[in-house]
Specification:
- The protein is of the alpha+beta class and 307 residues long.
- Helices cover 29% and strands 29% of the residues.
- It is built from 9 helices and 15 strands.
- α6 crosses α9.
- The longest helix is centred in the C-terminal third of the chain and has 22 residues.
- The protein is globular and about 65 Å long.
- 43% of the residues are buried.
């Protein structure tokens, strides 16, 4: 039996008869949080499957009126990649796409994002912004603020931001944000990708070389549907606010949440390594660094920040 069929069965009836699997298939399932015993795979009772109608219950009135449809897939290569493909053919504004598992989830700079089955939130939103392409620079920072505030509202303690697109708890990665632009047209439509660990930190931690945080550390009984709905609502609200007034009104909140604001850091930009103290972020989303040679500004594309 192929992995896609196993995922479909798990999503529809919480169990799958897998028969004989080779070691490679077993390892692939284990990496995605699915264990096989006695020829079968069964979801833990604590795993809450995603459902469009349950997600919508937690979306506010204004966002619900904008939200055209919510789709949940048992498996997908990448929710962002799928919306990027669709955007080449039709409008994706108001589309929310979620998946129980991603086989090729993506982070910034082409890095992978691991999404254990049923123990994550893999969400992509299509959003049209009535503004010029040149004004989009800080939108990923604004979205980071929205997601952090939504998680804090839901009881997740100690959420901080790491420029340009990570959410941390105690220095460990909880969430990633990936903003992509399918087409250079105005008004632009963007794909807002969000990945959150919700019960899957142990599986993720075996595959990555960095600390991993999890929503369930603060909220053991966290509802994935509720988190999805509240995050959609928060992202919609911040995009409308960003559309009206840019990043300026949101910037103070970003600075307050930024773990490295006013801290010494090192920026890796290709072969260059630059040490300095974070002065803050610009209205275009750049990181302002005070160095021995003066203030330098960095864009997020091919740059990494280190403590």
């Amino acid at each position: 039996m192929d992995l896609e069929t196993i995922f479909e069965q798990l999503a529809s009836r919480r169990e799958a008869r897998v028969g004989a699997l080779d070691a490679g298939a077993r390892d692939a399932l284990a990496a995605l949080g699915v264990s096989v015993r006695d020829g079968g795979a069964t979801l833990d009772d604590g795993i809450e499957l995603l459902a469009p109608e349950d997600v919508r219950r937690y979306v506010g009135e204004a966002a619900a009126a904008w939200l055209d449809r919510i789709e949940v897939r048992a498996h997908i290569d990448s929710t962002n990649s799928e919306l990027m493909r669709r955007a080449l053919e039709s409008s994706i504004d108001g589309v929310a796409l979620l998946a129980e598992v991603q086989s090729a989830g993506r982070g910034r700079r082409g890095r992978g994002w691991t999404s254990p089955f049923g123990r994550n939130l893999a969400l992509s939103l299509g959003v049209r912004l009535d503004m010029a392409l040149t004004e989009l620079g800080a939108v990923s920072l604004a979205v980071g603020v929205a997601v952090a505030d939504a998680l804090e509202e839901l009881g997740v303690r100690g959420v901080a931001l790491k420029w340009p697109n990570d959410l941390l708890v105690e220095g460990r990665k909880l969430c990633g944000v990936l903003i992509e632009l399918p087409r250079a047209v105005e008004p632009p439509e963007i794909v807002v990708g969000i990945g959150i660990n919700i019960g899957g930190a142990e599986a993720v931690g075996r595959l990555v070389e960095q600390g991993v945080a999890d929503v369930t550390e603060s909220v053991p009984d966290a509802s994935r549907n509720r988190i999805a709905g509240r995050v959609i609502d928060a992202v919609f609200a911040v995009c409308r606010r960003f559309e009206r007034g840019g990043f300026g009104p949101i910037k103070p909140r970003y600075d307050a949440l930024h773990r490295f604001h006013g801290q010494p850091v090192r920026i890796l930009a290709g072969p260059e390594s630059v040490a300095g103290v974070v002065e803050g972020v610009g209205l275009d989303g750049t990181l302002r660094l005070r160095t021995e040679s003066g203030i330098r500004e960095f864009h997020g594309g091919e740059v990494s920040l280190r403590a």
